[in-house]
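Thread: quick sanity check before group meeting

JM: Hey all, I'm pulling together slides for Thursday and realized we never actually wrote out the predicted structure for the chain we discussed last week. Dropping the sequence here so it's in one place. If anyone has concerns about the input, flag it before I start.
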Amino acid sequence: MDFQEFVRIFTESGCGHLKHIEMNVLYLHGLESKPTGPKMRYLRDRFDNYYAPEIDYEDPDAFEEIVDLCIDEEFDMIIGSSMGGYFACALGTGLDVPVIVFNPAIHSRSFEPYGVTFGEYDLDGVCVLGMDDDVIDPHVTCKMLEDDAKMAIMPMEGMGHRTPFTEFITAIESIVPEEVG
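JM (edit): ok, ran it. Output follows.
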């Protein structure tokens, strides 16, 4: 069962009597960001098991280290922003893990990280796009993802490349049911 199907069944089944469904979540920050600040505090409080490594995307071993981490930790979901969203998409297709990606750098990257490979599984999850993004063109991203049947697009009008804290929370809360965490 894919992530969107899980959320749909969970929501429609009235399983509110379930107090909590635990998730192990990985967050991958953007190229010029760090895994600190209010978004990280929110994720730490929102999900039972949460991991956000600091990544040097120019390190030739970065992708392989994240792959190893994913295999070791068996994440239920990967959340990524910009370059972290690009890594999340590749990891999701390689490891069959659902993703929530914010303005993923699946095109127009400032450099090509070493060793990033996409796998055999369908991309599954939600792509949140700032429709005013002037770094990663959201219209190109939409076109690239239009044939991915398991990938929903969530356009955010007025949002640019950087995802403000309030929009970040709004997106996560509208995608992941309150009981899941």
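AS: nice. Residues 9-20 have pLDDT under 50 and may be disordered. Residues 23-175 form a domain with the Rossmann fold fold (CATH 3.40.50.1820).
JM: adding both to the slides.
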